[in-house]
Queue: 2 jobs
Job 1
Amino acid sequence: MNDGRLRRLRAGVDLAAKHLRSIGNDGISARALGDAVNAAFADEPATTKWYVTRAELDSSLARDPRFCLRSDLWYLASDTSTEAIESARALVIDPLRLGVALTLHDWQREAIAAWKFAGRRGIIEAVTGSGKTRVGIAAVAEHLCSPSARAVILVPTIELANQWLRSLHADFTVPVAIVGDGSTADFETNSVLVYVARSASDDLPPRMRRLATSRPVLLVADECHRYGSETFARALDAPFAATMGLSATPEREHDEGMKHFVVPRLGDVVYAYDHDRGIGDAVISDFRICFVGVDFEVPERDEHDQLSRQLERSHRTLLAEFPFLENAHPFIAAVKTLAARDEEGAARSYLRIAGERRRLLNGASSRHAVVFWLAEQGAFSGNRTLLFHETIADCEHLAQGLIGAGVAAAAHHSELDRESRRSTLNSFARGELSAIAAPRTLDEGIDVPDASLAIIVAGTSVKRQTIQRIGRVLRRAPDKRTARVIKVFVNDAADDPTLPSAPRFARELAASARGLVRRWPSEAPDILNFLGDFG
């Protein structure tokens, strides 16, 4: 709610209290009380243009403890003192949601019902682009019907905090503020605080303990899979009256952070909404994915093969020294735990070699070459395209190469200041940019307007990352029918989805009705046909 409307409503409620006192608290209808308030506004030069509707006044009084409603007439509550009416502090309206009707999809109503049935505790799992934020807003709206209630929105990044702030301002009339990235706020003057996780870890628990006896607080933890560590989980260690987690990918493949840190504090998954239902309900766009295989250059292949042999030897050494790793799941998490204890041991050596091979794989020069070839073929014409890579340097190289090929492109990453990142997204939304190249800053949470093509130039083997990146182009748009995704891999390497050793999710997606596998450059015409078939 803007400041002008808030001042108007605060003043209207205060005038209503004074008017009821002046007539001996005999009781008055909302219509008559509204007429009295608006007449008082008209008498003062500073407020002569102010006006409150009956609905606004009714909703405001219903959430102010100084008033009570009996037989459709408003009265001052019996314990309301003259001092409370006259005091400027009495102008502060308790949490309100005035005149806003939240429109929800069927699945969102089902999710809220399931969460309530679970005791207002649990995680909502929903495909990216389907409207998870709306579920959180609906929960906050209902929670704030209690005059003393407050809410906390927990987010992993400042960009996501600003996105939540815009959504809350669009739907709510309550004061909302951000805590984190240099911004501070409190519950004395705000009904909802949007916390950046790094700030919340230390600041939120003691603040919540002070509030616990006087105000019920709802926690909505967005992208809750991100809090599966001891540090971030501290933000969840507080006496919340209700907890809701939101995530498209609540599982964590390479560690058990959700199991150990998140689920015990937020609750289990109580509702799930997947791709197929989202597409069937026309909530998100359908998609097709083409896995495009490229070759290493000869020196790259030689180095990759050498590192693979070293990794095999290191793996054998590791199992000989720590036989329990044979059955460890997830394996990599167990190795990382060992490495943290022994800086010179076999576990650290294994991780070092694996990291070198992964950097070589992600940096294969043919990955960039196929993107620049697509630009030469006009693939970016008429398509708002998101490109994903793993490093800032690679994203800058992609953006500059596309610019050289005549494509309006820019990089988006954490080394750019906040205003530059915002400007890039705004330019993309206006159609001034055709392509954005990002490492991980656009993987989760951020709304990316109307993108219809995603090119995953390089990425991890983690299922969650692939799902999140595909999800960036699934949001519905009037002129978008089927979103398209290209995922580049290196033939006969760790990310080749046709190999038996490839991650199961990649193998299944490539073999599904939505997927196909093509090699570049030998099957270049098929790749272009893929891009042209699904507009």
Note: The chain has a mean pLDDT of 84.
Job 2
Amino acid sequence: MMTLKRRILLFNILTFFTTMVIVVGLTARSGKAINTTDLDSSKPDTVENGQDYAKETQEVQGSNTPTAYTSMFDTEEAQVVSGKCGKDAVWTYDADSELLQITGTGVVDQRIKKSEEYVSEYGLKKRYRVKEIRVGEGITALDGGPLFLNVRKAKGAEEIKLSLPDSLEKIGADTFDPGQNDAIYIRHIHLPNKVRYIEGGAFWGLGDEAELQNSFREDVKSISQKYKEKLKITIDSKNPYYTIKDGVLFTKDIKTLVYYPSEKTDKVYRIPKSVIRIKPLAFARNSFLKEVILPDGLKEIGAGAFFNNHRLAKINLEQAKKLKRIQDFDGVKYKISLGCWTLAPVGVGMEVLEESDERYHVLAEYRKDFYGSTKVRKDYYFLGTFAGTNLKSIQFPERLKYAAYNTFKNCLRLKKISFGESYAGEVNPDRLCDKKGFSLPMWSAMEIQVSESNKHYKVRNHILYSKDGRTVYKALKSYQDATLVLDKNVQKIAREAFSGNIAKKLRKVVVLGSLKQISREAFALGGIKSFEVYGNVDTIDVEAFFCCWELQKFICHGTVKNIGAQAFYYATNLRNLSLGKNIASIGAGAFDGCGGIKKPHVMKN
């Protein structure tokens, strides 16, 4: 039986809906659209950012047909929006003509930003679809990093036309950025006669990249069919600073190579003998080069010069006899927008995680941050000079002293490196984005040869050591021993020294003295079963024994002071653990997944 209260409730509901039906019918007959503002005439129309949030409905006299319902997100889209892009420079976008203009004087050093007056039907700020970008007279420099990130090619247009003024003198690094914009549809850039300074990486976002899975011939055909016009850069005949030779941009004296187009399809390129300098990111993103021949007089290879040349398999680096340093391109400084080629989310405006940040080390948080596209490790912004190439071997020139952190990042086929007599930088340095030491491709077996006259490194028993024998850097591809005994002289085991498949047969490590550091991921994902040290250990670093599933015993006869985050993470078979009684710190998750031991605690003061 239905209770009295339920009957009254049901009656009220039916009455309400009946009333609404009558109201709708009367409104329809009068020719008015239903609108919430009609129900309460005392409320003013909603206004946001000075714009009516809903279009006013117009009554059609003598008509019985109701006008369409107006959504709260239907906006009177602004046809012309503008904003500042420099101290004395302004950008203006006309949605009708799909034209973006930059006018004023001086330097453009601010990105073209989205406008609150130009939004989608859902109230979201939109990017600007353009047929043409026109930079007006009076503008002297484009120097604000990725200026056109919020610009898209107009629907139906085959390209984006670009006009640069005669007053232009400088084009800064990353002006045409490849990340999440349509710079690839700018098919022609004409440099006026006053342009006298083009920074390395100014044009690296121009042109398309070929598909990794396709053949060379398929890639050439694909790009030629995709675009009506070939990518090209031309120069005013009166420009005294730059020249084009075989489609490549040089300084007038042919001493500096500025830009090699990403769509240039030569398999082999011999750099002119007169060239002594290659600008940063000069060859970046070219998908066709298989070999580059460097001139003997080359003194400088710009940061990230061959970044992501994924077919580049051969370069005579040893011939650059005057080369002293290889650098990474600092994407944090130039605010680059990272794309999928770096295996990182788009990064502009995101928080950069430094190595000192604890969140960097905690894998669970790092994974959440990474896939959530909210935070990204700092090293993803640094573009290595040969990162992402297809190099199988590399020989350092005799004078080369340093190679930066990401020099060989993602060089998955690199199996052999030869050090010259001067190389002094670290291998797998602890410091993130180190400017003097490079990281080897992660967990890969490597053959490393060292010049006998090198004063900083040596190879002994198929292991790379520092010359003084205090640091163990890397087990080489030829290392086959099951047991490793480190003498009292050894003080440090470097990052990834025995990780992954580097030392497949290694099962037991004995350290006769004390260690200052077992570095990050030193044995991570390796097959080690026993580790014993007869002295003290100052630091077991982050993820040093990460997922060492076969590790059964870790014995320190002295004291371990500091244990990093996830140092023994999921060492599931660990049963015998001795760390001493004076542990000063234990990082987050250091013993997570180690169910067979009693977890140690920090010493109380």
Note: Residues 4-30 form the longest helix (27 residues).
